[in-house]
Structure to design on (224 residues):
C-alpha cells in the first residue's frame, strides 16, 4: 500500500469517527433537553396540583369559618336575648311582688274595716273578700310563695267567717244588743285577726327572700 492510499483511508476513518461522535453528542443533547422538559413539566404539574389542593383547603377553611361565624353570631344573639329576657323577668317579678304585697295589705284593711262596722245596730254583711288578684299573682309569678300565700289566704277567709258569724247572730237577735253581742264574738274575731297578722308576717319574710333572689342578695335591713 502506498502512502497516498494510506492517508486517504485514515481520513475516511476519522470522518466516520467524528460522524459517530456527532450523532452521539446530538443524541445526548436531545436526551438532556427532553429530560429537562420532563423535569420542568413535572415540577410545574406538582406545583399546579399543590395549588389546587391549597385552593380546596382554602375553600374548605372559608366554608368552616362561615359556619363558625354563623354559629358564634347565633350563640351571641341567643345569649343576648336570654340576658334580656332574664332582666325583663326580674323587673316584672319586682313589680308584681309590690302588687302582691299591696293586695295583702288591702285584704288586711278590708278585715279591719268590716270589723269596725260590727258594733253598729244594723251591721252590713261583709262583701266578698278581695283575694282573687292576690292568689293570681302568687300562682303566676311566685311559685316559691305558694305555701305562705295559701296560709295567708286561708287565715283571711277564716277571719271573714268570724265576721259573718257575728252578722248572723246579730240578725237573729234583731239587733237588740249589738255591743254585748260584739263583746261575745270579739275574742274569736281578734284571734282570727291575729292569725292573719302572723301569716302576713311570714309572707313578708318570704317576700324578702324573693327580693334577694331577684337582686342577687341586697343588704339586710337594719335591726331596730
Amino acid at each position: 500500500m502506498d502512502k497516498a492510499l494510506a492517508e486517504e483511508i485514515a481520513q475516511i476513518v476519522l470522518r466516520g469517527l467524528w460522524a459517530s461522535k456527532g450523532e452521539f453528542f446530538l443524541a445526548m443533547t436531545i436526551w438532556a433537553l427532553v429530560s429537562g422538559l420532563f423535569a420542568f413539566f413535572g415540577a410545574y404539574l406538582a406545583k399546579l396540583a399543590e395549588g389546587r389542593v391549597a385552593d380546596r383547603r382554602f375553600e374548605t377553611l372559608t366554608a368552616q369559618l362561615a359556619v363558625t361565624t354563623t354559629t358564634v353570631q347565633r350563640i351571641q344573639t341567643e345569649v343576648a336575648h336570654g340576658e334580656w329576657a332574664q332582666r325583663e323577668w326580674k323587673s316584672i317579678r319586682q313589680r308584681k311582688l309590690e302588687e302582691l304585697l299591696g293586695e295583702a295589705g288591702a285584704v288586711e284593711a278590708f278585715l279591719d274595716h268590716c270589723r269596725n262596722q260590727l258594733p253598729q245596730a244594723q251591721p252590713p254583711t261583709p262583701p266578698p273578700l278581695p283575694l282573687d288578684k292576690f292568689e293570681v299573682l302568687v300562682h303566676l309569678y311566685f311559685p316559691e310563695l305558694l305555701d305562705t300565700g295559701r296560709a295567708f289566704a286561708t287565715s283571711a277567709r277564716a277571719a271573714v267567717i268570724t265576721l259573718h258569724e257575728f252578722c248572723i247572730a246579730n240578725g237573729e237577735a234583731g239587733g237588740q244588743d249589738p255591743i254585748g253581742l260584739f263583746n261575745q264574738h270579739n275574742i274569736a274575731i281578734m284571734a282570727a285577726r291575729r292569725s292573719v297578722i302572723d301569716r302576713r308576717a311570714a309572707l313578708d319574710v318570704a317576700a324578702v327572700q324573693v327580693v334577694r333572689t331577684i337582686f342577687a342578695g341586697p343588704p339586710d335591713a337594719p335591726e331596730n
Notes: Residues 17-21 have pLDDT under 50 and may be disordered.
